Amino acid sequence: MEIPPYKEASLEETIQRKLDQSTMILQNINAYFLLIDEEFIVRDTNYYSLNRLPAPEDGVIKRVGDLLHCRNAAAAGECGKHEQCKLCGVRAAIGKAFCTKEGFKKLNASMNLLSEDENRVIPCDVSVSGTYLDIHGKGHMVLTVYDVTELKNIQRLLNIEREKSISADKLKSAFIANISHEIRTPLNAIVGFSGLIATASSEEEKKMYMDIISENNERLLRLINDIFDLSQIESGTLNFEYSEFDANDLIRELEGIFMVKLADNPSVDLVCEANLQPIMMYSERHRIIQVMANLIHNAIKFTKSGEIRFGCRIEGTDEAFFYVSDTGIGIPKEEQEKIFSHFKKLDREVPGTGLGLTLSQSIIRNLGGRAGLESEVNKGSTFWFVLPLTVKGKTAK
């Protein structure tokens, strides 16, 4: 078998290969060059070859905005004719460069371009550089246009993440400061009154000290549990144990707990609105009790007189509506959207970390529900949440 003789590439083939390589490089870096004159008419460009488009027919004039499919140029019929063209940063930079016969570098501009079919507007970020040339006594300019949209989008995302990170750091610092105060307060009470018990002069005084210690023990334990539960939810490690139960039994259980707590406060009535008909659910019973208990605790803290109502009812055909309503101080309209934010406290004089509602909302979302509130200043608040009667495809019997 004969081996064909080696054929050296011709000059034309070598030049074409080099041009193809240059085209591939420019395609990869999203760059165009445009040779223009002082009237912004494009005399030469690689735009068509890079995009594999046919070049315009002889005699068809294309200016910079026409070539790039500028939205304003298309609307006015020609680059430079639109009212907004007077405000175009790219046009102003090119005009100045022609006047001074100097180039410019890396002008960043945001443009609204039209798609090839002119049916869609495409936001685009470009970086433009210009080099002034004198060709046969006439001013020309070589523009290099880089499409930096992707880079700018990455920068915008990084800026957003940076702002989120700064906000998270501030939030963490505020949380640590708040938690430190909230932990120290019950601990001081526990330590202080534990020492006073030994010096109490009567059983009545001893009982008073012990009640204070017990109340602060409960407050401290609730605080630690909230921190632990919230950290588990955010790390995705909190366990949810599902079972079947009657929501009315859950409501009555809460009534028994909080009737004892309000026994010494006759100015506030606790009203449990349980239904006679069963409300069978398949969900996380203990977490629902935790959320309801938190809402009732909050209602007690902010209600000096009047009543607190809580209960559950069927919503539609497949949801349970839980609510806690009070006649307390209420929440201003502008603060209501922030109420479920991390560590948000509306009243610094009232004990608490602001963790409870954040934790409650996280639990409700994990159970496939939603939460909200209705409130009016000095008239009271109603906190509610809706949960599906069934979870994970299970059906209550």
Automatic annotation (TrEMBL):
Enzyme superclass (EC): transferase
Keyword Metal-binding carried by entry: no
Record's catalysed reaction(s): ATP + protein L-histidine = ADP + protein N-phospho-L-histidine
Keyword terms, alphabetized: Kinase, Phosphoprotein, Transferase, Two-component regulatory system
Superkingdom of the source species: Bacteria
Domain Histidine kinase: 178-391
SMART domains assigned: HATPase_c (SM00387), HisKA (SM00388)
InterPro entries linked: HATPase_C_sf (IPR036890), HATPase_dom (IPR003594), His_kinase_dom (IPR005467), HisK_dim/P_dom (IPR003661), HisK_dim/P_sf (IPR036097), Sensor_HK_Regulatory (IPR050736), Sig_transdc_His_kin-like_C (IPR004358)
SUPFAM superfamilies linked: ATPase domain of HSP90 chaperone/DNA topoisomerase II/histidine kinase, Homodimeric domain of signal transducing histidine kinase
Any matching Pfam family: HATPase_c
Entry's Gene Ontology molecular function annotations: phosphorelay sensor kinase activity
Listed EC numbers: 2.7.13.3
UniProt xrefs under PANTHER family: HISTIDINE KINASE, TWO-COMPONENT HISTIDINE KINASE
Protein name (database record): histidine kinase
Gene source species: Bacteroides oleiciplenus
